[in-house]
Specification:
The protein contains 9 helices and 17 strands. With about 375 residues, it is α/β, with parallel strands linked by helices. Strands 7-12-11-10-9-8-6-13-14-15 form a 10-stranded mixed beta sheet, with helices on one face. A 3-stranded antiparallel beta sheet has the order 2-3-4, covered by helices on one side. Strands 1-5 form a two-stranded antiparallel sheet. Strand 16 and strand 17 form a beta hairpin. About 5% of the residues have low confidence.
């Protein structure tokens, strides 16, 4: 007798434990070492006695079933290897950050100007101490067209305090309207007025940067992004359950991380759907399919990864970046967690969030990993 998991159920093995991912019901089943060993054996088409209580439990959960003979089980996939070959010349560009401004009159402690390590700095407002000739508005419009032609799905308009360049911002936004699935715009709470929000209505969804807990309540029409200092970590626990739509941006001081932070604990594990699971096997969960275009035209893998550049589009079209440097881009896009220190032997690697910018800043290595309290060698959370 044999036992096999269903086509929609994936067994992912770690160093000590494994996990079953049910991609239909969107559930993860963490396994004990003994259960891991049993599923590993059965998934290799090794015979079972049929009396294993755990296997009968999995059958009741509709995760697998028994067979009289060895059975080949073709797993559910969004895209197979032959389709991957057909798509290899497409860019698979899904999201681009456009830093159309770099001026701000504030001096916020969490700003990129100060080099603060942040868990969601890419989604917040930043200005940068960088030299170079800024792109003119005509070039930004050209980039909007090029991104549309490259089938980019979403754009995030950002850069310093956009209200200081509001006419320019609105002109670019109006030009981009209708060309992308989603348009977000990053603004600081203290710069906003009702007229600004009225201008954005129906054009873009604002991401509102704040460091004030009372201002971080999610409301219809915008997404708050709360910058959290290390000394205020404990203040957010009563806030989280009531504000699930708010984004939390944890600032890391002196490389010190608390094991119970959401970015460190098992709260970082998010059950992916079929599409996301398949994509995470081939692309990094965050920077895969992502680009950022800086105020001066440098093309970056992420707004926070200023030390890496694929080239500059001040005088050349964006498609030439892919034409000349696709291998370098794929170095970041295809940096799956199978290639990351510690993650490669973790059973949760296809369902985990990961910020390469933050971990690189903390470890000094693109493949380094510090932002996680799980030890896959022991199969335990710290």
């Amino acid at each position: 007798m044999y036992f096999r998991l269903n086509p929609e159920c994936y067994f992912i093995q770690g160093s000590k434990r494994g996990a079953i991912f049910d991609l239909i019901d969107s559930r993860i089943y963490a396994l004990s070492p003994e259960e891991t060993e049993l599923i590993e054996s059965s998934e290799k088409n090794q015979p079972v006695s049929g009396h294993e209580e755990f296997l009968h439990e999995l059958k009741k959960l509709r995760l697998g079933t028994f067979y009289d003979n060895r059975t080949y089980m073709y797993k559910v996939r969004v895209i197979n290897s032959s389709m991957e070959e057909e798509l290899k010349f497409q860019t698979n560009l899904s999201r681009t950050f456009l830093e159309i401004n770099n001026s701000c009159q504030r001096d916020c402690w969490f700003c990129g100007w100060h080099g603060v390590s942040r868990s969601m700095g890419c989604m917040g407002c930043n200005k940068w101490n960088e030299d170079g000739r800024p792109l003119e508005i005509g070039r930004w419009k050209g980039l909007v067209d090029e991104l549309r032609d490259l089938d980019c799905k979403d754009i995030v308009i950002t850069g310093g305090d956009l209200t200081l360049a509001w006419d320019k911002t609105m002109e670019i936004l109006d030009y981009a309207k209708g060309k992308f699935s989603k348009i977000h715009m990053v603004l600081h709470q203290d710069s906003l007025s009702k007229s600004h929000l009225d201008d954005l209505d129906g054009r873009a969804r604002p991401i509102i940067q704040t460091e004030n807990l009372s201002n971080a309540v999610a409301k219809e029409g915008f997404t708050p992004l709360l910058a959290v200092k290390p000394e205020h970590y404990g203040d957010i626990w009563n806030f989280i359950p009531e504000n699930k739509d708010a984004l939390l941006d944890f600032a890391i001081k002196d490389g010190q991380l608390s094991n119970d932070l959401p970015i460190m604990s098992n709260k970082k594990i998010k059950m992916p759907g079929i599409y996301q699971f398949s994509r995470h096997m081939r692309y990094h969960p965050c920077i895969g399919g992502t680009l950022a275009i800086s105020y001066t035209g440098n093309v970056l893998p992420c707004p926070m990864m200023r030390g890496h550049s694929f080239g500059n589009v001040g005088d050349g079209e964006l498609y030439t970046i892919f034409e000349k440097g696709l291998d370098e881009i794929n170095k970041f896009w295809k940096l799956t967690l199978d290639k990351i220190d510690k993650c490669r032997c973790c059973e949760f690697r296809y369902s985990c969030t990961d910020c390469r910018a933050l971990d690189e800043s903390l470890t000094g290595r693109l493949e380094g990993k510090k932002v996680c309290s799980y030890d896959p060698e022991e199969g335990a959370w710290a």
